[in-house]
Every structure is written in C-alpha cells, then in structure tokens.
Specification:
The complex is a heterotrimer of chains A (283), B (272) and C (315). By secondary structure, chain A is mainly alpha-helical. Chain A is 77% helix and 1% strand. In chain A, strands 1-2 form a two-stranded antiparallel sheet. In chain A, helix 2 packs antiparallel against helix 3 (52-73) and helix 3 runs antiparallel to helix 9 (162-188). The relative contact order of chain B is 0.16. Chain B has helices spanning 42-50, 72-77, 95-103, 111-114, 116-136, 152-164, 182-197, 209-215, 233-236, 240-247, 249-254, 264-270; strands at 4-13, 16-26, 31-35, 57-62, 65-66, 80-82, 170-174, 202-205, 218-223, 226-231. Chain B has 2 domains: 1-79 and 169-272, Rossmann fold, CATH 3.40.50; 87-167, no CATH class. With 272 residues, chain B is an alpha/beta fold. Chain C contains 13 helices and 2 strands. Chain C has helices at residues 18-46, 53-71, 77-106, 110-135, 145-148, 162-184, 186-196, 198-203, 208-234, 241-256, 261-281, 286-301, 310-313; strands at 152-155, 158-161. Chain C has a two-stranded antiparallel sheet with strand order 1-2. The chains are: A mainly alpha (283), B alpha/beta (272), C mainly alpha (315). Chains in contact: A-B, A-C. At the A-C interface, helix 4, helix 10 and helix 12 of A face helix 3, helix 4, helix 10 and helix 12 of C.
C-alpha cells in the first residue's frame, strides 16, 4: 500500500478523534480545525531549525496552551453560540494564514518542508492518541461525558464538575487537531493556508458521522472509509467536495450515529425479531 | 445536630417571590414531607437546597455545614442527592452504569488518564455500591437493561438507586410517585419507609396528601412561598390554614375538619 | 481575499479623508446588514445556524456571472440583483425543505437538532463552492464593465456612487420592511410562535413547514442579492469569498443579538465602521481580526448581544 496514503489515513484518524472527543461529550467545539492550522504552521516553521520530534511536541504544546485560553474564554457558551464562536476562531486562523505573509508565506504557503514522516512514526503518534482517548473515556470518564452530553444540569446534580470536564474535552480536541496538523506538513512537504477551515471541519465531521462518535473506533472506521473515498471517487476528481458535502448531509439525515450506529440498530432489530419469533412459536 | 436547617430563606426571581421567608428543621433519620398547593414554592425550595437556584436571603445548613452558596456539584458531593419530577436517566447507558454515576466522584474527571489504578479501584467500588443500591430498591437483575426497557415505576426506582449509590446523608425526592398507579405508589412508599428504617434522612415533596400523611413523621406545609404549618402530619393537615390553602376559604369553612382519626374530608376532596 | 469597499468610489489607498471612509463604512455596513439579516432570522426563528449561508452569498454572485457568460448580453444591475436573490432563495428553500426541515423533525432533542443542522449545513455549503471552483475560468472574476460602472456624485469633499447609495437604501428599506412584517402582521406573529416552540405552533394551526420555507427563502434572497451587490462594489467574484463573509455575519449577529433585526442594523454598521477605520488608519491585516475580536468580546461580556434575544421568546 502506498505509504503516503497510509499516513494520510492516520492523520485523518487523528482529526476524526479530535471531533469524536467533543461530540461525544456534547461540547459544540469545532475549534480543532483552527488548532490544526496552528499546529501545522508551528511545526512547519520550526522543523528546519529543530529536530522533528521537538517541532511536533512544540506544536502540540503551543496549541495546548492556546486551547486552554480559548476554552476558558468561551467557557460559558453552549450549543450554537459555542459552535459559532469556535468556527469564527477557525475562520480567523485561515484568515491569519492567508494574511500574515511574512510568517506563513501567505496564499502561497510554505514548501520545502523536510518530509520526516514515516508510517511507523505517524502510527506511533496515532497509537498514543488512541490510548489517551480510550483512557480518558474509560470507566467513570466515559459515564461522565455521556451524562454531560445527555443532560448537563443532571451531571452537575450528580456531583460532576462539568466546567472542568468541558474545558478538558475542548483542550484534548485542540491538541489532537494540532497533532494531526503538525504531522501533515511532515508527510507532504508543503503547507497551504486553505487546508484548515471549512473543508477540514467537513472532513473531521464526515469521519465521525460515517464511523460513529461512541469511541475511538468510530473515527478509525470513518477514516478508513474517507481515505478510500478518493480512490473510489477517482472518476469525479474535481467534484470530490460535492460528494463529500452530499455524503455528510445524507449521513446526518439517515444515519446520524454513523456506520456503527447502523450496525447497532441492525443488531437490535435482529434481536427483537428473533424474540418476537420465539414468542410466536411458544404461544 | 440537625440533618437540615433552613434558616429564613428567600428566593426572588425578578419580581416573583417564589420563596419568601421559609424556615424549618429536619432531624436525622426523619422522613419529612413538604407539601403545598400548586405554585406554593415547594419545588423551588427543593431546588434551593440542591443549589440549582441561588438564595436571595438566608442560609441552608446540613449537618452543621453551610451548603447554601456552594455550587451544584459541590452540594451533591457533600452528600445531598435528589430525584427529579421527570425521570432523568441516560438512555444510552445501562441501568447499572446509570446507577454507578451516583457513586462516581465527579471531581475526578481525568482520572482514567492520569490515575488509572485509582480509577480502576474507584470503578470496582462504584460497581459494588451500584449493585447494592439496585438490590436495595428491589431491582437486582435489572443492571444490564437499558432504562427505556423498564416500566416507569422501575425507572423511578433506578433513579432512587442512583441517589442511594452516593451514600447520601440527605435524600431529596421530588414527586417520586407522579403518574403512578396506587399499587406502584404503595411500593415506592414501602421503599421510602424501609430507607427510613435504615436511618436515611429524606425530604419528600409530594402532591398525594394521603400518602404523605401516612408515610412521614414530620410535615411542612407551604403556600405562597411561606410556611403555613409545620409539625406532626396527622394534625398538621387538619390545621385550618392548611385546609384553607388547599380547599379555599369558603369550602374550608363549609366543611368542618373531620375527627383526628379518619382524616376524611381531605381524602375525598383530593382524590388523585 | 476580497476586501469589500477597498475598491469603491473612495479608495482607502489614495484618500485619507474621513468623509470618504464614512461612505465606505456605510456601504460596507449595508452589505453586512443584508447578508447577516438572513442568518440572524433563521437562527432566531428556526434554531438553524446555516453555515452554508456564505456559500449562498457567493453563489448568488457567481450565478449571475454564469448568466452573463451564457446569455452574452449585458444586463442591468437591478436585474442581476433580482436574479441573484432568486438563486439564493431557491438554494435556501431547497436546503430547508430537503435537509433542515427533516432533520429537525426527526431529532430527539433540540440540542441534537441544532448540532445536526449545523453539521449538515457545513456539508451542504461545500457544494456551491465546489461547483464554482469547477465552473470558474479564473480565480477572481469580474462583472462586465458596463454592468459594474455606476454614476458618481460629489458630496462635498467626498464622492459617492449610485451603487453605494442604492446598497445602503436597499439594506435599510428591506430590513425595515422585514421588521415591520414580523412585528405587525399575523404571519410575523406566527413566526414568533414558531421561534417560541414549533410543536406548540403546529398545534395552534400554524403552517410551520410553509412558513419555515418562506423564511429561509427570504434569508436566501437577501444572501444572494447581497452577494451580487458585494461583487459589484468590490468588482470581484471569487469562489472562496463566502467563508470570510460568514465570520462577519457572525459578528453582526452576535453584536446585535440572535434574532433581532434592529440589532443586526446596529451590529452591521458598528462592525463596518470599526473595520473601515481600523484598516484605513491602523493596519490592513486587522480587518478579520476585528470581527473575531468583537465576537469574543460580546460573547464573553454580554452573550445575549447588544439587543437581547428576549423579544423572540415573547410569542
């Protein structure tokens, strides 16, 4: 298999994870795309001067700090207000990426970035991210995010420090987005300002919408599908975004819990049908 | 030391005085009833105790500690747990997981990542307490079901189990038998009585006056945000002011209070 | 990226005259008002945060470009504006009927509906942009000179074009008419009932489906029309021009309060003036940062905006 394709898929997985973390906890933050940009440019700009692991870690650290600041600032917002504010943040990052020529190379972006990424390296980061997310959402942590998503006032009545939890999830999401962003220029050697922003949000959401947002498994599944899509859609090369957009709409309309949700629904239906049948047989 | 002391509290929302100077005391181990006609402020009182609404005036003290002014999660973690009028369970989690939420320590949101060993231990602990709580409410086998698969009365019991899993020092119940058949009401009543027998302090907000007078050892009656009667249930419901509050002045005057034993007039008029 | 107003009759690069900047700011404010009104209405009434709004603005302009190319004739600006508005109305209505409406009906909770609609709108918004990218023959396109040219008048030391006057007048008249419609007519009251609770409205006999579609049509018409006016004022159409505009629309909506038209008027001109003067006298890069900073400031200090959303709750 093509190495670049594998690494792309893994970076898609990381973006999907970033969105899974916030969507499962009901925190409407779409800021991961903006942090992708921050992570990408931080890494791309420092890698010529520092060892690549340090660049990546620096990108993640810078984003973590900014994510804490952003989450604290937007802490009181909920629902669409938070969604809108975080999208505004994403759009601002895109705007800065285009406008701050001296730093980011403006519309032309950066190139000649050393392609230090290897499948093993990206895979290792993905594995660490998986473990982190799985551990955070395990046991009580998983119950906390589920109740937070379902009914925040109830969560508080159960003693859950929801403010802290929301910030933690938003920061984790930002960090995962930044990690995905930091790795991307190391995979391709180039970085352009149009890469974060709406198409990235669509990508992340698509991965979670297709795969499901219950756990890290959803993004894994979703990333697999999404990485294969361009191959399957080779005949609609220029119209790919149209297909992506339409796919998101269709999934939201007909399968909001993703493929995993469809599988579960199928299982429940089968279970119920066999229960009905055995009832019929015994009466 | 009293289990709960409400000291001259008021809750004003803009121009509305939902609670306007309420004081009462609950002794440990008591099953205390809080009743009043619609709009009397009893739900607001419960919300004030659990921290959901801020006090405009006054203080709430539980076991000697001031709880008023603390955040909702803090109050919950200090041992005051409640059920709600509408059943609030998480549909995607199993019954057992829902009850475990009652036992989980909501401060430790990142323990799964930062303190995995402690998280594992806490999880086992929570599971044990949840299983015990489910047994306590008579739902041993229901752990692996989803809340939606249970009948309404059982869901209410799961909610109570979730509160019990926290090993609370004060249990607030907000109309726990609303919408239930007489048989189900009796079952819940028995559960509350058995909880009282094991020493649990409870504050029960209810509409069903008959049930409340039979169950409780202390009754507080509110109307228009004020306490109008406070004492032994059987005598309190016969208090003129209480009868007026429920029946209206004209009717209360027309129908004399029945004898202490039968409590008849109120039974027939309320009928719900 | 497009910079509306910078190539208007009073070029900030050549003139530092305050009056000229005021004209620029007023024009910009008018444009912002036009495309933010649709967004604040759909959000306030239908709980729909339509992130495809920016793409619709762009496609309104772009479709007229296609029309001009196809027909080969030169059409007057008013005609083109109507065409752009019609395209916008069509796209928004389709979105409401095929996507937003069904999603909201099927959603279990309001929060789920909001999130699903948001996600679906992001997906849907990609489509017009992709179409434009494929059908466009240049990165930035222009309207034919005969269409874009407009008479210029002298107003003391400043110059103002007919187009600029038309934009401001149109913006104020249209939003005024909308505000009147919503507050004085029975359909307006029906809309407020829908904003309060769609199920209740349905039970009261309000034709929720039809009114929602109508509202989205109006929102889309304003978006499409504003897109063309923006393109005419800046003399530029670019497939990606919608995204940056969305940021501005957010700022306007947040400043004025969700669902408030009066608030949108204030928000639009506050933003336009802040931007114009910051860019002219401080730094050009500040343009988008101002929008974002205003959003953050208002959301943190006064989340309900300068004019509260309360009016929608009083159904």
């Amino acid at each position: 298999m093509n190495e670049t394709l594998l690494m792309t898929g893994l970076s898609y997985y990381l973006i999907g994870l970033a969105f899974q973390v916030v969507l499962r906890s009901g925190v409407f933050s779409l800021a991961a795309a903006g942090f992708w940009g921050i992570g990408a440019y931080t890494c791309a700009l420092t890698v010529p001067h520092l060892a690549w692991p340090i660049s990546v870690l620096l990108a993640v650290a810078v984003s973590a700090v900014l994510a804490v600041v952003l989450a604290a600032t937007l802490g009181r917002l909920r629902g669409l207000y938070l969604g809108m504010a975080t999208i505004a943040f994403d759009l601002l990052i895109v705007s800065l990426a285009f406008g701050w020529d001296s730093l980011t190379g403006g519309a032309l972006g950066l190139y000649g970035i050393p392609r230090e990424a290897s499948p093993l390296m990206v895979g290792a980061f993905a594995a660490v991210a998986t473990v982190v997310v799985a551990m955070v959402q395990s046991r009580a942590g998983g119950r906390f995010v589920d109740v937070l998503r379902t009914d925040e006032p109830l969560a508080r009545s159960l003693g859950v420090e929801t403010g802290r939890l929301r910030v933690a999830m938003a920061v984790l999401s930002g960090v995962l987005g930044a990690l995905a962003g930091a790795l991307t220029p190391l995979i391709f050697g180039v970085l352009g300002p149009e890469e974060s922003g709406f198409p990235l949000v669509v990508l992340g959401l698509m991965i979670v919408v297709i795969g499901g947002s219950g756990s890290w498994v959803g993004p894994a599944l979703g990333a697999l599908v999404v990485t294969m899509l361009p191959e399957l859609l080779r005949f609609v090369e220029e119209w790919r975004d149209v297909v992506y957009g339409a796919l998101v709409v269709v999934m939201v309309l007909f399968a909001p819990s993703g493929l995993i949700g469809l599988v579960k629904r199928g299982q429940t239906a089968l279970r119920r049908r066999s229960a009905d049948e055995s009832e019929v047989m015994t009466t | 030391m009293t289990a709960l002391q409400v000291e001259d509290i008021a809750v004003h929302f803009g121009g509305v005085k939902a609670v306007d100077g309420v004081s009462f005391t609950i002794e440990p181990g008591c099953l205390c009833g809080l009743v009043g006609p619609n709009g009397s402020g009893k739900t607001t009182l419960l919300n004030a105790i659990s921290g959901l609404v801020p006090l405009t005036r006054g203080r709430i003290v539980a076991d000697g500690e001031t709880v008023s002014g603390r955040s909702v999660p803090q109050i919950a973690r200090s041992g005051i747990r409640r059920t709600f009028q509408a059943i609030r369970l998480v549909p995607e989690l199993t019954v057992l997981q829902n009850v475990m939420l009652g036992a989980d320590d909501g401060r430790r949101v990142l323990d799964g990542l930062l303190r995995p060993k402690r998280a594992a231990r806490a999880d086992r602990d929570a599971r044990d307490r949840a299983l015990q709580a489910l047994a306590r409410v008579g739902l041993e086998g229901a752990g692996s079901s989803r809340p939606g698969e249970l009948p309404y009365g059982h869901q209410r019991r799961v909610e109570i189990a979730r509160a019990l899993a926290a090993d609370p020092r004060l249990l607030l119940l907000d109309e726990p038998v609303a919408g239930m058949s007489p048989a189900e009401r009796a079952e819940i009543g028995e559960l509350l009585m058995s909880l009282r027998e094991s020493g649990m302090t409870q504050l029960l907000v209810e509409h069903d006056l008959r049930m409340v007078t039979q169950l409780t050892d202390h009754l507080v009656v509110v109307d228009f945000g004020r306490v109008i009667a406070d004492g032994e249930p059987a005598t309190t419901v016969l208090d003129d002011r209480v009868r007026e509050a429920y029946l209206g002045r004209a009717t209360a005057r027309r129908r004399p209070a029945p004898s202490h034993r039968s409590g008849g007039a109120l039974r027939t008029s309320e009928g719900s | 990226m497009s910079s509306p107003g910078a190539t208007g009759a009073n070029n900030s690069r050549t003139g530092r005259d305050v009056l000229g900047q005021i004209v620029n700011a007023l024009t910009l404010g008018g444009i912002y008002l036009l495309f933010a009104t649709g967004l604040t209405l759909s959000w306030g009434v239908l709980d729909v945060l339509n992130l495809a709004h920016g793409s619709i603005v762009m496609f309104g302009a772009f479709s007229t470009y296609l029309l001009l190319q196809a027909s080969g004739t030169v059409l007057a600006l008013p005609v083109l504006t109507l065409f752009a508005a019609a395209v916008g109305a069509l796209l928004s209505t389709l979105l409401q009927l095929l996507v937003f409406g069904p999603i909201r009906r099927r959603a279990a909770t309001r929060g789920q509906a909001e999130l699903s609609v948001l996600i679906a709108s992001i997906g849907a918004g990609l489509i017009p942009v992709a179409v434009a990218l494929n059908l466009a023959d240049a990165e930035v396109m222009n309207l034919p000179r005969e269409t874009a040219s407009t008479a210029i008048h002298q107003l003391g030391p400043a110059r103002i074009s007919t187009l600029q006057i038309a934009i401001v007048v149109l913006a104020l008249v249209l939003t005024g008419a909308l505000a009147w419609w919503i507050s004085r007519t029975s359909s307006g009251r029906a809309l407020r009932t829908i904003a309060f609770d769609p199920t209740t409205a349905e039970q009261l006999g309000v034709p929720v489906g039809r009114l929602s579609a109508l509202l989205m049509a109006i929102s889309g018409a304003l978006a499409g029309g504003s897109g063309l006016l923006l393109a005419a004022n800046a003399n530029a159409i670019a497939p990606h021009m919608g995204d940056g505009l969305l940021l501005k629309a957010f700022a306007v909506v947040v400043l004025g309060g969700v669902g408030s038209i009066g608030g949108a008027v204030i928000g639009a001109f506050v933003l336009a003036f802040a931007e114009t003067f910051a860019v002219a006298y401080v730094a050009g890069e500040l343009r988008d940062v101002i929008a974002f900073a205003l959003i953050l400031l208002v959301l943190v200090l006064r989340p309900q905006g300068l004019i509260s959303r309360v009016s929608w709750q009083r159904a």
